Each structure stands twice: as C-alpha cells, then as structure tokens.
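Chain A, query sequence.
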Amino acid sequence: MSLAQTQQELISEFALFSDWQDRYEHLIELGKDLPLIAPEHKVDDNLVRGCQSRVWLHAELSNASTGLSVTGHKEPLIRFTADSDAMITKGIVALLVRVFNDRTPQEIIGASTDFIDQIGLRAHLSPNRANGLSAMIDQMKRYAVAFSATSRQGS
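Chain A, predicted structure.
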C-alpha cells in the first residue's frame, strides 16, 4: 500500500467516529497495537525532543531494498519502532509509524502530513501535544534525510 493510500485509509477510519471521544479511544487502540521498541533502543538518545510526554523513536534501514527511489533504483526502507509513557501520545506515534514505516527515505522526506489536519487531530490536541506531534514528524523526517545522505554516499 502506498504512503498516500495509508494516509487515506486513516482518514477513512477516523471518519467512522462521530465524536472526538471515540477518536481518542481509537488513537489509544492504535497505541496498544504499536510494536514495542526494543529495550536497547529505549534510551535518551532516542527521546523525541519537544514532547511533553516521553516518546522514544528509533529508526534503522531495513536489510531488504524493496523500495524504489525517484531515479528508479532500489532503495532501502526505513523501519521505525516507538513507545511513549502516555496513552494518547503513544497512539499519535503509532499513527505516524503506520504511515512512515517501511518507506524509502525519499518517500518520507517528500510526504505531506495534511492527513493529520484532515482527520482533525491537530485541532483537537492541546498546544503541548500539537508541538509534540510536530516534533515526532520532524524527527522522522530528520532520520529520512540522514539515511538518504548515507545511502547516497554508499552508492
């Protein structure tokens, strides 16, 4: 499924809920399904700066080069794992992992995050949580930029 299709799937999922209490509960459920970060990656270096809650985000290039870059060459995919000590925040990072996991660095770098506004998430977060959401997206995109530079150097 493409990144855009995954985003559209999330927009459709959230549209099924009539109020924000139900949407928050769905976010919490997404967080419960998040594959946990390995204990060795749950370290201060992987904490997302700018989040009120503690959010650990780890990224690594997968061994399989199944993604295609813009030039048509095979490119490794980025795998994300994450965790948080707050339920809503864990759901937010799970939502982002669902969109950005197993994507090429270029897909992540060029990805729009308009789906967040389309589901109304940003508008229904406290200012601190909205800042944390932006910090998580920024961190995922920084990983993609770093991996993109690394993969270009290795080719």
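The longest strand covers residues 55-61. The radius of gyration is 15 Å.
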